[in-house]
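stuck on this one:
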Amino acid sequence: MSASSYLFGESTGELQRLARQAALVEPETEELFRRAGITAGMHVLDIGSGAGDVALLMGRLVRPGGSVLGIERSADSVALATQRVAAAANVPVRFEMGDLNTYEPSAAYDAVVGRFVLPYLADPPGVLRRLASHVRPGGIIALMEFDVTRIESVPEAPLFRTVATWIRQAFEGSGIDPALGSRLGAVFRDAGLPWPHMSSFQKASGGPDGFYWLFAETVRTLLPQIERLGLASAEQVDIDSLADRLRDEAIATRLTAFSPRWVGAWVSVSVPGGPSAGA
């Protein structure tokens, strides 16, 4: 992914947000990869590793006998991910720096996996096609992506609607498809792959203990884009009180908040870069 297209940066606060988000979706992520066929002994390429959450999950799934190589463009993220692997102990994971827009694997893999990475690439189908050519026959490509246009609440409420609009328009205004997750099947097809097996889910939350942090912290990291695009000023956003105000609105209106739609897709590749079962 390019520095110009990735909206969130690599600050300590952003890495903490990503870690909380990763914990929120880890059960469904693990289910996706298990259903796709990730198992012990496999050698896996994890693309867009960030702080290493998916790679660590993969490391647990492929031991004993397997290995995971994570590719990440940020040196700070690679350093943090490497520290986390060392702290986890006995997890067969390592990381390398690389720009996925041009990265060419030097080996063949049993699987290529990733989460929340394709929308930030200049040519998602082209990158997927290139990586698929390095998957062994019978290997797996499994990805999870987002659709932030599906952030909503029931009943609809003014502040929550405004926050959802800021998030969607920040992506759109930066030339990034906010709904790529819902178009993930077409991305696979455009990459020359079969239509994938797919599933989707949303998290629902309400009451005093809801995950309002998810929306507020996403806005926090998008705030420079929100201001640049003229969607709102920092004073209007009032970021430090946003999560509390979302919670107060939810309680007052008995609101249920829905996360982005998260979409998983996977295929088994019969020949490197070619069609497979399910085409």
